[in-house]
Amino acid sequence: MRKRFSGSATAGDTVRTLAWPSADEEIRLLSEQIDKDLHDLEGLPCDLFVPHPIPSDEMLDEILKRTASKRKNGRALHLWRAAAIFIPLVLLISFGLYVNRHADIFGTSETRVIEAKRGEKLHFIFQDGSRVAVNSATRLQFPTRFGLKNRSVCLQGEAYFDVVGMNNRPFIIELENAEVKVLGTSFNVKAYPEEDSIRITLDEGSISFHNNLDHSRTLLTPGQTLAFNKQTGASRLYEQPNAFTWTSNQIVFQNTPFLEIARVLERAYDVTFHVQNQDAYQFAFTFTSNPNEPLENILKDFERVSSLKFNIKKDTVTVSVE
User: What is the pTM for the complete model shown?
Assistant: First the structure.
């Protein structure tokens, strides 16, 4: 600073001088030093002063400019610190909202129900990309967004599932007194409320059947069918190659009792069977229909191989025995 006043300061000295008074405390120290120097000069002859113009206005402007710059930089630093806290918080919330659109982590997802009426079939794609074919007289309930830990649906009726594989996020079908748990596979579930048994047939992959009555688990391999009695909890494994034919609009019976046949046809064609003679339930049939075959053709085939007679009026089928 003294060199700057005396005119002997180099460019580097000038830069250091201008950089020094950049805070209120530093300005106070500079002022005290100037006052001391002026006090020492009092009483000296005027000719001892060497005429040298001091750019005091310019220096003051520069000092104020530097001081304002530092204060501004201080405010900027506070803003950056606030941004460092606020921006990650915003990103975290945004990520959570994004994930919640695809997985219900906040438990706010609504429940959706689709129902296939008698005589119709439906196809649906879930939010995760899994597909389902829904058979006649079936009710399927599920959330609009699956949970983060699992994908759970509730089934009453029959449906064929083609599930997208997701590790650590199983697909669960809730049934009466049971459930089916899978990670990714294709399978058929038949669980109508009016029937005593639930039948699960595996097409591809592997599934785990959970018996909620005795808490047992059964693993199925492709081609296997598990029949589960909803009242007793008893289950058995067997092969049923025709379990998926309904998805191609075919009906297949393999030595099937007429009581079960009547239920299948009622759902498929939206009719009601009225059996006049209970002896009709003693019959069993093996039959494979053509895709979308009319009900009249199926019943005529039954009449050819048995003593059953069928009379169709609108949506009622009367069954008699000759």
Answer: 0.68
